[in-house]
Amino acid sequence: MGLAGAAYAISTAPFFPTWSFGWSSPFVALGMSSPVILWLWARMIFDEHFALRPWHAAIWVLMAGLGVVAFNGWTSWPDLAATCGRLLAAASIAFAVLAIAQTAKGWRKAITTARGRLLVALLIGISSQIVLSASAGLAGIPNRSISLTVACGLGAFALLSIWMMLFEPPESQPAVAGAGGGSGEVGRTSGSFVRISPQATDRASLHRLEYLMTTERTYRQEGLTIGVLAVRLGVPEYRLRTLINDGLGHRNFNAFLNRYRIDEAKAALADIGQAEVPVLTIALDAGFQSLAPFNRAFKADTGLTPTEFRRKAATGQNIHGEAKIARMN
């Protein structure tokens, strides 16, 4: 989606050459096929049973081809280019409407979180921008007449997307037990904070997630992302994010992974039988990619370096109390 948006912004800029086929064609193909990518993105988010099929690629190729001929074919085939341009505009509107229609399958659950509401707003905003641009094309309005509006819209969507990736919305922060006496009460279960009385579907997903993390130790997998874990769990990515943030009370996906990784590392460091195992080996076995991030995460959780933790564990000192104080701070 991000690459398609960037290609669209470049290919519709006033300085961009559109009078001949050549190096500009890939930008045009990707930019003009962005409505198809938006539709597939919406399906992937809101349809739990969605899977990419070969015919999806065929639709994308057809849309990209219409875009290339419509933009680059004016000098060679003006009539064909005009026809392809009208077909491209009509198809763009259709796919934007289909993308919005996908929200009907999961908007009720999505709007229960701040991130979900932003996601729905982003999808509707991008779809509206596509409809506006395509309608202007059908009406014969020059692209330059709406270029400022399109640029402002793309900039706003880009900033919102970056904010969603870098920051956690306030409602995604962990709930505090007893705060306000409301429904945000949480309980301690298997090292994680879990909200009381989740829905039946959420309970099943939480049990499956717990199995993946504690029995299969999926957190050890190299390059594990929330998208990969969502596929293994069999739920959309936004739903898994909701389970991690609201159901388990973790600040973000990395905090969720590090909880399991650090617990495994603490058990290994406190094990007398592994006293000769290097700290780096323990960190790598737990799923960390290098020593530096492991040391930072470990000290943030326990208030001790891994070496200090191992030494105190070997002498029988109280390491759990210090770890609790470190997490509170």
Outline:
This protein is mostly helical. The chain has helices spanning 2-11, 25-32, 34-46, 54-72, 78-102, 107-110, 114-138, 147-166, 200-214, 226-233, 237-247, 253-269, 279-286, 291-302, 306-314, 319-328; strands at 186-189, 192-195.
Shape: elongated
Number of continuous helical runs = 16
Count of DSSP strands: 2
State the distance separating the first and last CA atoms: 39 Å
SSE succession: HHHHHHHHEEHHHHHHHH
Strand percentage lies at: under 5%
- The overall pLDDT, averaged over residues, is 76
Order of strands, widest sheet: 1-2
- Structural category: mainly alpha
Instruction: Give the low-pLDDT segments.
Output: 169-198
Describe the sheet with the most strands: 2 strands, antiparallel
**Helix proportion range:** 55-70%
Radius of gyration: 25 Å
